Amino acid sequence: MSPVVVVIMGVSGCGKSSVGVQLARLWNATFLEGDAMHTGHNLAKMASGVPLNDDDRLPWLLALHSRIRRAVDFRDRLVVACSALKPEYRHVLIHGRMLSDEDDVASETERRDAVAFVLLAPDVSDLRSRLERRAGHFFPASLLDTQLSTLRFEAAELFAHEVPDEDGVFPPPERIADRLASALLGSSSSGGSGASGGSGGPGTAAATARPP
Ligand SMILES: Nc1ncnc2c1ncn2[C@@H]1O[C@H](COP(=O)(O)OP(=O)(O)O)[C@@H](O)[C@H]1O
Ligand SMILES: O=C(O)[C@H](O)[C@@H](O)[C@H](O)[C@H](O)COP(=O)(O)O
């Protein structure tokens, strides 16, 4: 199954919302801002400088899962901005529960293939200055380190992994969105899963095709 849902993931300030809005426009999808679905408790906790834990995040991830599930079932394109920092969290987004023994059965694979994860990973110095410049947001720059230490992923989980180019420049949101949209439109017209034509090198949107 080609992707129906794209989750733009990564730590705070990496550009999830900026890329997500533009990708949704180009790919003709609905955009869902994950932060809009946090509980008041979670927002207040982060605003007070305390990072969320697994228990705080679970209801939020389940709420996002129900939107993702509906999009997959109805094949309604959806782009979601969500930190999705751990493999366990991404599993909840796709399947609506934590990892379990049943996870490798064929029906689960189809659902997994319908959801593409795109990791945005600017340099830490870039992230820090973006967060320090971002006025009026509930998320304090002081929490960036906890986000970076919580983030875990394997290349095979990702549809694309965006990093700075060889000159250390992170691409603008428009360029990332453009490349993602081309890869997604290519993957749906060819009927295949994952991105096609990526070089696999750093800085390449859609560089990492999902394994079959
Ligand atoms: N690719 C980019 N290059 C430079 N600045 C960016 C880029 N993407 C986002 N920004 C800026 O970084 C800040 C955080 O972006 P945002 O999209 O809100 O990130 P997130 O949703 O991941 O927290 C904003 O001020 C935004 O304008
Ligand atoms: O899982 C979490 O700890 C939060 O979701 C966190 O990752 C998110 O980043 C904040 O909500 C800040 O919002 P932005 O990511 O949009 O800056």
From TrEMBL:
EC numbers for this chain: 2.7.1.12
SUPFAM superfamilies, per database record: P-loop containing nucleoside triphosphate hydrolases
GO molecular function, one term: ATP binding
Name of the protein this chain belongs to: Gluconokinase
Regions crossing the membrane: none
Gly residues: bias regions: 189-203
GO CC term, one of those recorded: cytoplasm
UniProtKB keywords: ATP-binding, Kinase, Nucleotide-binding, Transferase
InterPro entries: P-loop_NTPase, Therm_gnt_kin
Family stated for the protein in its record: Belongs to the gluconokinase GntK/GntV family.
GO biological process, one term: carbohydrate metabolic process
Top EC category: transferase
Reaction catalyzed: D-gluconate + ATP = 6-phospho-D-gluconate + ADP + H(+)
Pathway assigned to this chain's UniProt record: Carbohydrate acid metabolism; D-gluconate degradation
Domain of life: Eukaryota
Residue ranges, annotated region (Disordered): 187-212
